[in-house]
Task: structure prediction
Amino acid sequence: MLRRQILTGVGAAALALAAVPALAQETVKVGLILPMTGPSASTGRQIEAGARLWMAQHGDMVAGKKIQLIIKDDTGAADQSKRLATELVVNDKVAVLGGFGLTPLALSVGPVATQAKVPAVIMAAGTSTIVATSPYFVRTSFTLPQNTAPMAQWSAANGIKTVVTLVSDYGPGLDSEKAFKAEFEAKGGKVIESLRAPLATPEFAAFLQKAKDLKPDALFLFVPSGQGASLMKQVNERELAKAGIKIIGTGDVTDDDQLNGMGDALIGMITSHNYSAAHDSPENKAYVSAFLKATNNMRPNFMSVGGYDGMALIYKALDKTKGDTDGAKLLDAMKGVSWTSPRGPMSIDATTRDITQNVYIREVKKVDGQLYNVEFATIANVKGSN
Ligand code: PHB
Result:
Protein backbone atom coordinates (compact mmCIF):
# COMPACT_ATOMS: atom_id res chain seq x y z
CA MET A 1 0.00 0.00 0.00
CA LEU A 2 2.73 2.35 1.05
CA ARG A 3 4.74 1.43 -2.04
CA ARG A 4 1.80 2.09 -4.33
CA GLN A 5 1.25 5.48 -2.73
CA ILE A 6 4.88 6.44 -3.24
CA LEU A 7 4.81 5.30 -6.87
CA THR A 8 1.62 7.24 -7.53
CA GLY A 9 3.17 10.27 -5.91
CA VAL A 10 6.33 10.00 -8.00
CA GLY A 11 4.30 9.47 -11.16
CA ALA A 12 2.22 12.57 -10.55
CA ALA A 13 5.26 14.67 -9.75
CA ALA A 14 7.05 13.47 -12.88
CA LEU A 15 4.05 14.29 -14.99
CA ALA A 16 3.77 17.73 -13.44
CA LEU A 17 7.44 18.34 -14.13
CA ALA A 18 7.20 17.11 -17.69
CA ALA A 19 4.13 19.24 -18.31
CA VAL A 20 5.90 22.48 -17.46
CA PRO A 21 8.61 22.41 -20.13
CA ALA A 22 6.12 21.04 -22.66
CA LEU A 23 3.92 24.09 -22.21
CA ALA A 24 6.84 26.50 -21.93
CA GLN A 25 8.39 25.12 -25.11
CA GLU A 26 5.48 25.27 -27.51
CA THR A 27 7.74 27.46 -29.59
CA VAL A 28 11.17 26.17 -30.55
CA LYS A 29 13.57 28.96 -31.40
CA VAL A 30 16.34 28.49 -33.93
CA GLY A 31 18.91 31.30 -33.97
CA LEU A 32 20.97 31.78 -37.13
CA ILE A 33 24.05 34.01 -36.86
CA LEU A 34 24.99 35.18 -40.36
CA PRO A 35 26.96 37.91 -42.13
CA MET A 36 23.98 39.85 -43.57
CA THR A 37 26.12 42.94 -44.24
CA GLY A 38 29.82 43.38 -45.02
CA PRO A 39 32.03 41.48 -47.48
CA SER A 40 30.35 38.08 -46.87
CA ALA A 41 26.76 39.38 -47.10
CA SER A 42 25.98 37.08 -50.06
CA THR A 43 26.63 34.09 -47.75
CA GLY A 44 24.09 35.44 -45.25
CA ARG A 45 21.53 36.16 -47.97
CA GLN A 46 21.89 32.71 -49.53
CA ILE A 47 21.67 30.82 -46.22
CA GLU A 48 18.69 32.81 -44.99
CA ALA A 49 16.85 32.20 -48.28
CA GLY A 50 17.67 28.47 -48.11
CA ALA A 51 16.45 28.18 -44.51
CA ARG A 52 13.25 30.12 -45.23
CA LEU A 53 12.54 28.03 -48.32
CA TRP A 54 12.80 24.82 -46.27
CA MET A 55 10.27 26.25 -43.80
CA ALA A 56 7.95 27.50 -46.55
CA GLN A 57 7.93 24.02 -48.08
CA HIS A 58 7.65 22.00 -44.84
CA GLY A 59 5.63 24.29 -42.59
CA ASP A 60 6.60 25.75 -39.23
CA MET A 61 5.29 22.91 -37.05
CA VAL A 62 7.45 19.89 -36.12
CA ALA A 63 6.41 17.24 -33.60
CA GLY A 64 3.72 19.57 -32.25
CA LYS A 65 6.14 22.49 -31.77
CA LYS A 66 6.14 25.78 -33.63
CA ILE A 67 9.52 26.69 -35.12
CA GLN A 68 10.57 30.31 -34.86
CA LEU A 69 13.56 31.41 -36.92
CA ILE A 70 15.65 34.29 -35.53
CA ILE A 71 18.29 35.82 -37.83
CA LYS A 72 21.13 37.93 -36.36
CA ASP A 73 23.71 39.85 -38.40
CA ASP A 74 27.28 39.48 -37.14
CA THR A 75 28.59 41.60 -40.07
CA GLY A 76 31.36 39.02 -40.48
CA ALA A 77 33.05 39.96 -37.17
CA ALA A 78 33.92 37.08 -34.82
CA ASP A 79 33.43 39.09 -31.60
CA GLN A 80 29.89 39.89 -32.79
CA SER A 81 29.16 36.19 -33.55
CA LYS A 82 30.14 35.24 -30.02
CA ARG A 83 28.14 38.08 -28.42
CA LEU A 84 25.06 37.23 -30.49
CA ALA A 85 25.35 33.50 -29.68
CA THR A 86 25.45 34.30 -25.97
CA GLU A 87 22.40 36.60 -26.27
CA LEU A 88 20.47 34.03 -28.28
CA VAL A 89 21.15 31.35 -25.67
CA VAL A 90 20.63 33.45 -22.54
CA ASN A 91 17.86 35.87 -23.57
CA ASP A 92 16.00 34.11 -26.38
CA LYS A 93 16.60 30.59 -25.03
CA VAL A 94 17.13 29.16 -28.52
CA ALA A 95 17.11 25.37 -28.80
CA VAL A 96 19.56 25.38 -31.72
CA LEU A 97 22.18 27.80 -33.06
CA GLY A 98 23.21 27.82 -36.71
CA GLY A 99 24.76 29.71 -39.62
CA PHE A 100 28.42 30.91 -39.22
CA GLY A 101 29.57 32.39 -42.54
CA LEU A 102 33.34 32.11 -42.10
CA THR A 103 35.68 29.83 -40.15
CA PRO A 104 36.69 32.39 -37.46
CA LEU A 105 33.01 33.17 -36.82
CA ALA A 106 32.19 29.49 -36.25
CA LEU A 107 35.23 29.01 -33.99
CA SER A 108 34.18 31.93 -31.78
CA VAL A 109 30.76 30.34 -31.13
CA GLY A 110 32.07 26.87 -30.19
CA PRO A 111 32.70 27.63 -26.48
CA VAL A 112 29.19 29.17 -26.12
CA ALA A 113 27.55 26.06 -27.63
CA THR A 114 29.65 23.78 -25.42
CA GLN A 115 28.87 25.65 -22.22
CA ALA A 116 25.16 26.03 -22.94
CA LYS A 117 24.83 22.47 -24.33
CA VAL A 118 23.04 23.86 -27.39
CA PRO A 119 23.59 22.19 -30.80
CA ALA A 120 25.23 24.54 -33.32
CA VAL A 121 24.76 23.68 -37.01
CA ILE A 122 27.60 24.94 -39.24
CA MET A 123 25.90 25.89 -42.50
CA ALA A 124 28.82 27.65 -44.25
CA ALA A 125 32.29 27.45 -42.71
CA GLY A 126 34.60 24.81 -44.21
CA THR A 127 37.82 24.39 -42.24
CA SER A 128 38.04 20.69 -41.43
CA THR A 129 38.94 21.02 -37.74
CA ILE A 130 36.02 23.26 -36.63
CA VAL A 131 33.54 20.50 -35.73
CA ALA A 132 35.99 18.84 -33.35
CA THR A 133 36.32 22.06 -31.29
CA SER A 134 32.89 21.60 -29.65
CA PRO A 135 30.91 18.41 -28.95
CA TYR A 136 27.80 20.46 -29.91
CA PHE A 137 28.95 21.30 -33.46
CA VAL A 138 27.49 19.50 -36.47
CA ARG A 139 28.02 20.50 -40.12
CA THR A 140 25.78 20.71 -43.20
CA SER A 141 28.16 22.71 -45.43
CA PHE A 142 31.38 21.06 -46.66
CA THR A 143 35.06 20.90 -45.83
CA LEU A 144 37.89 22.12 -48.01
CA PRO A 145 39.82 18.82 -47.94
CA GLN A 146 36.59 17.09 -49.02
CA ASN A 147 36.05 19.45 -51.95
CA THR A 148 39.74 19.75 -52.94
CA ALA A 149 41.13 16.20 -53.02
CA PRO A 150 38.95 15.20 -56.04
CA MET A 151 40.34 18.18 -58.00
CA ALA A 152 43.90 16.96 -57.34
CA GLN A 153 42.97 13.43 -58.42
CA TRP A 154 41.36 14.72 -61.61
CA SER A 155 44.39 16.92 -62.38
CA ALA A 156 46.87 14.05 -61.98
CA ALA A 157 44.73 11.82 -64.18
CA ASN A 158 44.37 14.46 -66.90
CA GLY A 159 47.91 15.27 -67.93
CA ILE A 160 48.68 18.03 -65.40
CA LYS A 161 52.19 17.47 -64.01
CA THR A 162 53.05 20.77 -62.27
CA VAL A 163 50.77 23.11 -60.29
CA VAL A 164 51.05 26.43 -58.46
CA THR A 165 48.41 26.86 -55.73
CA LEU A 166 47.03 30.27 -54.72
CA VAL A 167 44.70 30.37 -51.71
CA SER A 168 43.33 32.83 -49.16
CA ASP A 169 45.63 32.86 -46.15
CA TYR A 170 43.37 31.45 -43.42
CA GLY A 171 41.90 28.13 -42.25
CA PRO A 172 40.02 26.90 -45.34
CA GLY A 173 42.71 28.16 -47.75
CA LEU A 174 45.44 26.36 -45.84
CA ASP A 175 43.27 23.20 -45.69
CA SER A 176 42.79 23.41 -49.43
CA GLU A 177 46.49 24.01 -50.16
CA LYS A 178 47.48 21.05 -47.98
CA ALA A 179 44.86 18.66 -49.39
CA PHE A 180 45.73 19.54 -52.99
CA LYS A 181 49.46 19.03 -52.47
CA ALA A 182 49.08 15.77 -50.54
CA GLU A 183 46.71 14.20 -53.06
CA PHE A 184 48.40 15.54 -56.22
CA GLU A 185 51.91 14.52 -55.15
CA ALA A 186 50.68 11.09 -54.01
CA LYS A 187 49.50 10.63 -57.60
CA GLY A 188 52.89 11.68 -59.06
CA GLY A 189 52.34 15.43 -59.66
CA LYS A 190 54.41 18.29 -58.22
CA VAL A 191 53.24 21.51 -56.54
CA ILE A 192 56.07 23.89 -57.46
CA GLU A 193 54.87 26.87 -55.40
CA SER A 194 52.21 27.50 -52.72
CA LEU A 195 51.08 31.14 -52.76
CA ARG A 196 48.85 32.70 -50.07
CA ALA A 197 46.97 35.98 -50.51
CA PRO A 198 45.64 37.91 -47.50
CA LEU A 199 41.97 37.13 -46.78
CA ALA A 200 39.66 39.59 -48.56
CA THR A 201 42.44 41.32 -50.50
CA PRO A 202 41.11 42.98 -53.65
CA GLU A 203 44.61 42.79 -55.17
CA PHE A 204 45.97 39.55 -56.66
CA ALA A 205 48.31 41.02 -59.31
CA ALA A 206 51.63 40.18 -57.64
CA PHE A 207 50.55 36.59 -56.91
CA LEU A 208 49.23 36.04 -60.43
CA GLN A 209 52.38 37.45 -62.01
CA LYS A 210 54.48 35.13 -59.88
CA ALA A 211 52.33 32.16 -60.90
CA LYS A 212 52.62 33.15 -64.57
CA ASP A 213 56.41 33.44 -64.36
CA LEU A 214 56.66 29.92 -62.87
CA LYS A 215 54.91 28.46 -65.96
CA PRO A 216 53.09 25.56 -64.24
CA ASP A 217 50.73 23.30 -66.20
CA ALA A 218 47.92 24.59 -63.97
CA LEU A 219 47.11 27.23 -61.35
CA PHE A 220 44.84 25.96 -58.55
CA LEU A 221 42.69 28.61 -56.83
CA PHE A 222 40.69 28.91 -53.61
CA VAL A 223 39.04 32.06 -52.29
CA PRO A 224 35.88 32.06 -50.14
CA SER A 225 32.39 32.67 -51.50
CA GLY A 226 31.96 36.28 -52.64
CA GLN A 227 35.56 36.85 -53.74
CA GLY A 228 35.71 34.74 -56.89
CA ALA A 229 34.58 37.49 -59.27
CA SER A 230 37.36 39.87 -58.24
CA LEU A 231 40.00 37.11 -58.46
CA MET A 232 38.82 35.80 -61.83
CA LYS A 233 38.70 39.31 -63.33
CA GLN A 234 42.40 39.66 -62.56
CA VAL A 235 43.17 36.10 -63.76
CA ASN A 236 41.52 36.97 -67.08
CA GLU A 237 43.35 40.31 -67.35
CA ARG A 238 46.73 38.60 -66.89
CA GLU A 239 45.86 36.12 -69.67
CA LEU A 240 47.19 33.09 -67.82
CA ALA A 241 45.14 30.74 -69.95
CA LYS A 242 46.67 32.24 -73.12
CA ALA A 243 50.10 31.59 -71.59
CA GLY A 244 49.14 27.89 -71.56
CA ILE A 245 48.32 27.69 -67.83
CA LYS A 246 45.13 25.80 -67.07
CA ILE A 247 43.00 27.47 -64.38
CA ILE A 248 41.47 25.05 -61.87
CA GLY A 249 40.06 25.40 -58.36
CA THR A 250 37.33 24.58 -55.91
CA GLY A 251 33.78 25.65 -56.73
CA ASP A 252 34.05 28.48 -54.18
CA VAL A 253 35.78 30.42 -56.99
CA THR A 254 33.09 29.78 -59.63
CA ASP A 255 30.34 30.45 -57.05
CA ASP A 256 26.85 30.31 -58.61
CA ASP A 257 26.06 33.59 -56.85
CA GLN A 258 28.59 35.41 -59.08
CA LEU A 259 29.49 33.05 -61.94
CA ASN A 260 27.12 34.44 -64.53
CA GLY A 261 28.75 37.87 -64.24
CA MET A 262 32.33 36.58 -64.57
CA GLY A 263 32.34 36.50 -68.37
CA ASP A 264 32.84 33.97 -71.15
CA ALA A 265 36.59 33.79 -70.44
CA LEU A 266 35.65 31.26 -67.73
CA ILE A 267 34.14 28.78 -70.18
CA GLY A 268 36.06 25.51 -69.88
CA MET A 269 37.33 26.11 -66.33
CA ILE A 270 37.33 22.90 -64.28
CA THR A 271 36.49 22.90 -60.57
CA SER A 272 35.42 20.38 -57.94
CA HIS A 273 32.64 21.04 -55.45
CA ASN A 274 29.70 19.70 -53.48
CA TYR A 275 26.94 21.74 -55.15
CA SER A 276 26.05 23.27 -58.50
CA ALA A 277 22.78 24.99 -59.40
CA ALA A 278 23.05 22.88 -62.57
CA HIS A 279 23.08 19.56 -60.61
CA ASP A 280 20.90 17.23 -62.65
CA SER A 281 18.34 15.69 -60.30
CA PRO A 282 14.60 16.08 -59.76
CA GLU A 283 15.24 17.35 -56.22
CA ASN A 284 17.57 20.07 -57.46
CA LYS A 285 15.36 21.12 -60.36
CA ALA A 286 12.50 21.64 -57.91
CA TYR A 287 14.84 23.42 -55.47
CA VAL A 288 16.29 25.85 -58.02
CA SER A 289 12.92 26.78 -59.44
CA ALA A 290 11.34 27.33 -55.98
CA PHE A 291 14.41 29.30 -54.84
CA LEU A 292 14.36 31.58 -57.89
CA LYS A 293 10.66 32.21 -57.34
CA ALA A 294 11.07 32.94 -53.61
CA THR A 295 14.01 35.33 -54.07
CA ASN A 296 13.09 37.34 -57.14
CA ASN A 297 15.55 35.33 -59.26
CA MET A 298 18.64 34.99 -57.07
CA ARG A 299 20.42 31.85 -58.27
CA PRO A 300 21.04 29.44 -55.35
CA ASN A 301 24.69 28.69 -54.56
CA PHE A 302 26.41 26.13 -52.32
CA MET A 303 25.80 28.31 -49.22
CA SER A 304 22.04 28.20 -49.81
CA VAL A 305 21.94 24.40 -49.56
CA GLY A 306 23.95 24.61 -46.33
CA GLY A 307 21.02 26.62 -44.91
CA TYR A 308 18.28 24.51 -46.51
CA ASP A 309 19.84 21.23 -45.33
CA GLY A 310 20.69 22.74 -41.94
CA MET A 311 16.97 23.32 -41.36
CA ALA A 312 16.24 19.83 -42.74
CA LEU A 313 18.59 18.39 -40.12
CA ILE A 314 16.98 20.39 -37.30
CA TYR A 315 13.48 19.26 -38.38
CA LYS A 316 14.59 15.61 -38.64
CA ALA A 317 16.20 15.75 -35.19
CA LEU A 318 13.09 17.30 -33.59
CA ASP A 319 10.97 14.63 -35.25
CA LYS A 320 13.20 11.92 -33.77
CA THR A 321 13.10 13.41 -30.23
CA LYS A 322 9.32 13.91 -30.60
CA GLY A 323 9.78 17.61 -29.95
CA ASP A 324 12.14 17.27 -26.96
CA THR A 325 14.56 20.21 -27.19
CA ASP A 326 17.13 18.92 -24.69
CA GLY A 327 20.46 19.85 -26.34
CA ALA A 328 22.19 16.50 -25.83
CA LYS A 329 19.16 14.59 -27.12
CA LEU A 330 18.80 16.82 -30.17
CA LEU A 331 22.48 16.50 -30.98
CA ASP A 332 22.28 12.72 -30.60
CA ALA A 333 19.31 12.65 -32.96
CA MET A 334 21.35 14.48 -35.60
CA LYS A 335 24.09 11.84 -35.65
CA GLY A 336 23.93 9.38 -38.52
CA VAL A 337 20.95 11.00 -40.26
CA SER A 338 20.96 10.68 -44.05
CA TRP A 339 18.73 12.07 -46.79
CA THR A 340 18.61 13.25 -50.39
CA SER A 341 19.42 16.95 -50.67
CA PRO A 342 19.27 19.13 -53.78
CA ARG A 343 23.06 18.51 -53.88
CA GLY A 344 22.61 14.69 -53.92
CA PRO A 345 22.82 12.11 -51.12
CA MET A 346 24.21 13.39 -47.81
CA SER A 347 24.60 12.19 -44.25
CA ILE A 348 25.92 13.31 -40.89
CA ASP A 349 28.75 11.01 -39.78
CA ALA A 350 27.73 9.63 -36.37
CA THR A 351 31.29 9.77 -35.01
CA THR A 352 32.68 13.04 -36.38
CA ARG A 353 29.34 14.96 -36.71
CA ASP A 354 30.71 16.17 -40.05
CA ILE A 355 29.07 15.92 -43.45
CA THR A 356 29.55 13.03 -45.88
CA GLN A 357 28.48 13.91 -49.43
CA ASN A 358 29.23 13.51 -53.14
CA VAL A 359 31.82 15.78 -54.71
CA TYR A 360 31.47 16.58 -58.39
CA ILE A 361 33.97 17.58 -61.09
CA ARG A 362 32.45 20.37 -63.18
CA GLU A 363 33.20 22.46 -66.25
CA VAL A 364 32.00 26.04 -66.78
CA LYS A 365 29.66 25.97 -69.77
CA LYS A 366 27.09 28.24 -71.32
CA VAL A 367 23.61 26.78 -70.98
CA ASP A 368 20.62 28.73 -72.35
CA GLY A 369 22.77 31.87 -72.48
CA GLN A 370 23.98 31.62 -68.87
CA LEU A 371 27.21 30.34 -67.32
CA TYR A 372 26.90 27.22 -65.15
CA ASN A 373 29.16 24.68 -63.46
CA VAL A 374 28.11 21.56 -65.40
CA GLU A 375 28.97 18.37 -63.51
CA PHE A 376 30.58 15.54 -65.49
CA ALA A 377 32.03 13.19 -62.85
CA THR A 378 30.98 12.16 -59.33
CA ILE A 379 33.14 11.05 -56.42
CA ALA A 380 30.60 9.43 -54.13
CA ASN A 381 30.27 9.74 -50.35
CA VAL A 382 33.38 11.76 -49.49
CA LYS A 383 33.85 12.25 -45.75
CA GLY A 384 34.14 15.80 -44.38
CA SER A 385 36.75 14.91 -41.78
CA ASN A 386 38.24 11.81 -40.18
C1 PHB B 1 35.20 29.58 -44.39
O1 PHB B 1 35.57 30.66 -43.89
O2 PHB B 1 35.28 28.53 -43.75
C2 PHB B 1 34.71 29.55 -45.78
C3 PHB B 1 33.92 30.58 -46.25
C4 PHB B 1 33.49 30.57 -47.58
C5 PHB B 1 33.84 29.52 -48.42
C6 PHB B 1 34.62 28.47 -47.94
C7 PHB B 1 35.06 28.48 -46.62
O3 PHB B 1 33.44 29.52 -49.70
Remarks:
- The chain has two domains: 2-142+282-353, 144-273+360-383.
- The domain at 144-273+360-383 is CATH 3.40.50.2300 (Rossmann fold).
